[in-house]
Structure formats: structure tokens, C-alpha cells
Specification:
By secondary structure, this protein is of the alpha/beta class. The chain contains 7 helices and 6 strands. The protein starts with about 35 loop residues before the first strand and ends in a 5-residue tail after the last helix. About 30% of the residues are buried.
């Protein structure tokens, strides 16, 4: 009689890769939750300008949002020469203005529309600086007649793209701005503008935090 032969198969001591425990995942890098430092640039120096009324309304929306620390640069107070000559007067004015731009993590630019574009004083302020705008988000608020200043906004998008800044898609615009506000500076119909401002500021806050975190990991070198 034949005896059955039993074959013993050795079991490998090595565990298949598919059965191994996954490698430990490093803890996420903690990100700063500090408010975004934003500078509001008031872009008109015209006599009798309406921009200060809208700037007051806008500052109220920024403070109400709660996600920002806000500062202000007003081109009416800048009075920078168009020759870019480093005179004593220009140097003194830049000493007050440039730090507010350099320390900002984001910007809100308030502009009227003059002759289908934005004011010369605003362009002059922008051109006096370069590094201060780089790798930062810019929200745009405009006012004017029928167009609401939107043509000025589209021109500014091109300028800030050249300066390596990122403009926020959502804007706030006031068509026939004088008629939108009452004599105390309040809006006759605040619901839509307030909602538009909230959306714009939410996106500005997101970009402000995102670019802060990106630059903490890798300095911008574009």
C-alpha cells in the first residue's frame, strides 16, 4: 500500500506589501489664523470727490467682516510727483506710504472711472512701487456713471498682473453712485452692495491666507 506523502509549504516571514500598515502620515503644518493685513487704497484726488463716502462705507464692511486688520492709503494725501525724482518731499511722503503697502498682505483698491479708465494719481502711486504689490491679492471696488467704473477695473487688472499681483474676480461697483447714497453716507438699498462686499471680502481673505501660507513655505521668485 502506498502511503500518502504530505508536502509542507514554508511560510515566508516577509509580510506582503499589500498587508503592511501604511507609513505614518506627518502631522499637518499649522497655519497662521491671524487676520489678514489689508490696505485700502483710495484712488481719487479730484476736488469734490465722492470716493470718501464710499471709502467710509467700505471700511465699515471690512471691519464688520472681522477677518482683516485694515490700514488706509489715500492718493489725495500722497501728492507724489510724476517725475519719479527722489526729492526730499517725495522721500518724506513715501516714508509714510510705502510701509503701509509693504506690510500689507492684501489690498482693496477703490477707484472711480475717468474717461473710460482710472485716475492718473492712482497710476502714479502704483508706479512708485513694485515689490510691495508682488504675490498679493487685490480686490477692486469702483464707482461711476452708467458703467459703475468697471472699465477702470478691467484696466487695473492688467496693471496688477504685470506687477505679479492677483486680482479678485468678484468686485463691488456703484452705478450712478451719487444717487445710491443718502446725505448721511448711507445706502438707500444696502442689501445687494453689502452682499457683494461680503463675497468679495471672503475671497480676498481666502487668497490672503493662501498666499501667506505659500510664501511661508517657499518665497515668491517669479
Amino acid at each position: 500500500m502506498k502511503t500518502a506523502t504530505h508536502t509542507t509549504h514554508a511560510v515566508s516571514a516577509r509580510t506582503p506589501a499589500s498587508a503592511r500598515s501604511p507609513a505614518p502620515v506627518p502631522p499637518p503644518v499649522p497655519f497662521s489664523t491671524a487676520p489678514v493685513r489689508v490696505t485700502l487704497v483710495i484712488g481719487s484726488n479730484r476736488t469734490g470727490r465722492f470716493g470718501s463716502v464710499i471709502a467710509d462705507w467700505l471700511l465699515s464692511r471690512v471691519r464688520e467682516h472681522g477677518g482683516f486688520e485694515v490700514d488706509v492709503v489715500d492718493v489725495a494725501e500722497a501728492d507724489l510727483p510724476t517725475t519719479f525724482a527722489p526729492t526730499a518731499e517725495a522721500t518724506a511722503r513715501l516714508a509714510e506710504i510705502t510701509p503701509k503697502l509693504a506690510e500689507a498682505e492684501a489690498f482693496i483698491v477703490l477707484t472711480p472711472e475717468y474717461n473710460h479708465s482710472y485716475p492718473a494719481a492712482l497710476k502714479n502711486l502704483i508706479d512708485w512701487h513694485y515689490e510691495e504689490w508682488r504675490a498679493k491679492p487685490v480686490a477692486l471696488v469702483s464707482y461711476g456713471g452708467v458703467s459703475g467704473g468697471l472699465r477702470a477695473v478691467e484696466h487695473l487688472r492688467q496693471v496688477f498682473a504685470e506687477l505679479h499681483a492677483t486680482t479678485i474676480r468678484d468686485t463691488v461697483s456703484f452705478h450712478n453712485a451719487h444717487a445710491a447714497f443718502d446725505e448721511t453716507g448711507g445706502l438707500h438699498e444696502p442689501t445687494a452692495p453689502n452682499a457683494a462686499a461680503r463675497t468679495m471680502l471672503n475671497h480676498l481673505s481666502w487668497w490672503g491666507h493662501a498666499l501667506r501660507e505659500a510664501k511661508e513655505r517657499r518665497p515668491y521668485g517669479g
